[in-house]
Design a protein that fits this description.
mainly alpha, 3 helices
């Protein structure tokens, strides 16, 4: 299953970069700006998921229950001191 996922990610990334490199002139810059915006939105989503006050996907943290509550306690302590 892992190999299938890796192959699909490789295929989609190759398709994306071939589409970008096939653009000519001004259109290429528009694509680069669109990629930059998409990257920023992905980073913002990651920050939102990281600093959420509650677990949004609790099933994905099975077996790692000690890490997330400790991080949340540190965030709460930092936030209370800042106020």
């Amino acid at each position: 299953m892992n190999l299938l996922m890796q192959a699909s990610l490789l295929a989609s990334s190759l398709t994306l970069w071939l589409a970008i490199l096939s653009e000519k002139g001004v259109s290429r810059w528009r694509v680069v700006v669109a990629l930059f915006r998409t990257g920023k939105f992905s980073c913002l989503l990651g920050v939102l998921l990281l600093f959420a006050l509650r677990l949004l996907y609790a099933d994905s943290h099975v077996g790692h229950g000690h890490v997330m509550p400790m991080a949340m306690n540190c965030l709460r302590i930092s936030a209370s001191r800042a106020c």
